[in-house]
Amino acid sequence: MARPRQALLTRQRIVEAASAMIDAEGLAALSMRRLATELGVQGPSLYNHFATKAEIVDAVAESVVAQVDVDVFTGADWRDGLRLWAKSYHAVLTAHPNIVPVLATGPGRRPAGLAMAEAVYGALIDAGWSRARATHIGALMRYLITGSALGSFALGFAADPELYARYPHLHRAHELAAHHDEVDEGAFALGLDLLITSLSDRYDQGVRR
Amino acid sequence: MARPRQALLTRQRIVEAASAMIDAEGLAALSMRRLATELGVQGPSLYNHFATKAEIVDAVAESVVAQVDVDVFTGADWRDGLRLWAKSYHAVLTAHPNIVPVLATGPGRRPAGLAMAEAVYGALIDAGWSRARATHIGALMRYLITGSALGSFALGFAADPELYARYPHLHRAHELAAHHDEVDEGAFALGLDLLITSLSDRYDQGVRR
DNA sequence: GCGTTAAAACTTACGCCGCTAGTTTATGCC
DNA sequence: GGCATAAACTAGCGGCGTAAGTTTTAACGC
Lengths: 209, 209
What we know:
Oligomer: homodimer
Number of domains of chain A: 2
Largest interface: A-B, 59 and 59 residues
Structural class of chain A: mainly alpha
């Protein structure tokens, strides 16, 4: 086959297939040949649309970050905005955990990342936080959100009770995997609540830097 | 060369070389052949000491986690213990950021991870926190620590001012990279402080679950 | 001391990887 | 209609993890 009447590939189709493959089987399972096969095409044809594999992975990361709702800041109190944004971001990353390590590199290099930084930082500045503190708060929220999405804490413990025999306090750690939803979501919710309420306390006391 | 009088390789030498290579050039740069060359040996010889590459990477992760100081909890108030442990953990990960994505998988599967979980969870339980809350707090601290180590927030912004023209609040974002130490460390310190003081408040009010 | 077994290096090779180069053919513009 | 470009193709390079089998040496039981 040479050039077809209707192009078989588009950047969007490629990104969607790559995203699905990463979600389903992980970053390491994505290869150019497998992705091409999924799209009904030979491997090197992908290079007519993206220069490198890294560009494809980057486009997937961009498409994920773009799903985060940053409109929540408009007209809202900074506390409410922060809380809603964090929940949206968390939900998006929880739906696509395998791409999270990629998001860690260069949050301010992808368009969607810049738009998000603008919204978050702008809301904090407008609320009266100092530039330095607004930066810290933005980075800190990011730490909590990506850290919690990087991998399930609860699922990191094996379900075999034998393994915990030598650790007196961990004798029920084998039950964690069964309740991983409650554990992981509970920890994130606690963290978000603690951070925002204590920031709010400082704010109300006039400590804004 | 066949079997030498003195073994050229040991598991420890392999792990040390792999760790150095990951620190210097990143996870992706570690290959069995390159690692073997570094050790003065042919690629497949490594398989006499480790069954797979993943086992080597796992051993590197274990050796990194083992550097975290978990003795800080003995005899200390839970707040002080938590703070010192978090700082130690943070310092270790900051020194070895490239291995962080590996640490995310299975914190409760490596011996050093279990020993750490035992120490942290035990200290919280002994202080009177409920089992569920102690688990949440442990997971939450982990989120903050790994999240902050996953990648520099400040270095994620390019130093080219042109890129921020469309984002009114980010007009000084190009300066972030130059102050990345203060930004990243400041954000982590703020997060640690906010979490522990607000947990402490709850604790003192008798809310321990 | 000697024969056997196991350890630790080696060489070779398989299938997969990202990617380059060159080819073919259809499309769309002058 | 001629022609540059786009989008598919095939062939192939060097590197990857790792399996298989070989060789030499060390360690151990008689």
